[in-house]
Amino acid sequence: MNQIKPFYFDITDDEIGYFLSETEKILRSGKLILGEHTAEFEKAFAEYVGVRHAIAVNSGSSGLEILLRLKKVEGTTVLVPTNTNFATVAAVIRAGGQVQYLDMDEGTFAPSLQMVQDAVERGSTAQDVKISGVLWVHIGGVISPEFPQVVEYCRGQDLFVLEDTAHAHGSQIKGVSAGNLADGAAFSFFPTKVMTTFEGGMVTLNDEQEDYIARSLRNQGKRGMDFGGLHTDFGNSTRITEINALFGRIQLKKLPDMLKRRQRAYELITAPLREAGIGFVSTEQMDAASHYKLIVHLPEGKTLKEVKAALGSEGVFLGGTVYEIPCHQQPVFEGICPGQSFPRAERWCPNHICPPLTSGMTEAEAKVVGETLVRHLSSN
């Protein structure tokens, strides 16, 4: 049986050869951090996203915390979707902020503009709540059609909007790339992401002073210095290595081609879903999408466990969900927003699947995935 898996490490023999050759040069140079590969990776990534500044870090989680520290969220409340990864919420807490969860819309798996407005209005009447901004997540690489309106509304309320772009490499709406839609963003290059540096992340910004401080925060608070003993900011050691940056350059160069192949797979998988009336989160409102995850709604009467087993029996293996357990139900975050419920997240987080969709998928495999989904999800 041919197995169609949800993860594909996109690298060629030529790229492996180049990586090994350049890695040898790095090792022989002795400069393992903050060298030319880091600088070139940052420059190329900034150009790709369309921002003025990109700061490479050791993880997307570190990038989020740096952004929140730049916005001085300590002692304030940040609006965060409950449907997100642990790292989004944890970054707010580590930066000294408090979290107010937002529910989600099943059409985008993100909050709606109305949800943001309602939370801001509630916060404006609560004496002990000072909302400073929104940490938005482009879940699965999908940019909500309402996101530009969310940014406009928040700026009118003097609130920042930060993008968690861990899933959104190459996603674009109305001619603007994810990572350049608001007041700063943090990408992840974890191994499962659309592009990877093994471990790593990138902060994208347009403000000169914030770029200066972000570089200090990733380097133990050494303003304007790569090395030395003067520490001005309460930073951390969250630099990327030269070897990670080298691999990031290799991956970024091929990212447009990887996204093109993912787009084709998305089209082939979703065509039979549309025909069968099976719901999924569409990217039709976007100019381009990373297609990190294709989010398919489970029909009534179908469970994640049984569908996963049934698909697996035919060689179609599901990827991780986004996310089966929302953050307000995670034990580690017990005590945040006590007594509040988020009904749409509670309804849809455990009731969706993410079928395999990779840059290594053949057209024949994509068609098989779509046909298999219809066979097991159709009500007929």
Write out key terms for the chains shown.
single chain; 380 residues; alpha/beta; Aspartate Aminotransferase, domain 1; 2 domains; seven-stranded mixed β-sheet; 11 helices; 39% helix
Mean pLDDT: 96
Order of helices and strands: HHEHEHEHEHEEEEEHHEHHEH
Biggest sheet, in brief? 7 strands, mixed
Number of strands: 11
The CATH topology annotation of the largest domain reads as Aspartate Aminotransferase, domain 2
Question: What would you call the shape?
Answer: globular
Describe what this molecule looks like in 3D:
- With 380 residues, the chain is an alpha/beta fold.
- It folds into 2 domains: 13-251, 3-Layer(aba) Sandwich (Aspartate Aminotransferase, domain 2), CATH 3.40.640; 256-377, Aspartate Aminotransferase, domain 1 (Alpha-Beta Complex).
- Helix content is 39%, strand content 12%.
- It contains 11 helices and 11 strands.
- The protein has helices at residues 13-29, 36-49, 60-70, 86-94, 113-125, 147-156, 208-217, 242-276, 304-313, 343-348, 363-377, and strands at residues 53-57, 77-81, 98-102, 131-137, 160-164, 172-173, 176-177, 185-188, 201-205, 296-297, 352-353.
- The strands form 3 sheets. It has a 7-stranded mixed sheet with strand order 1-9-8-5-4-2-3, sandwiched between helices. Strands 6-7 form a two-stranded antiparallel sheet.
- Helix 6 links the parallel strand 4 (131-137) and strand 5.
- Helix 8 (242-276) packs across helix 11 (363-377).
- It is globular.
- It starts with 12 loop residues before the first helix and ends with a helix.
- 49% of the residues are buried.
- The mean pLDDT is 96.
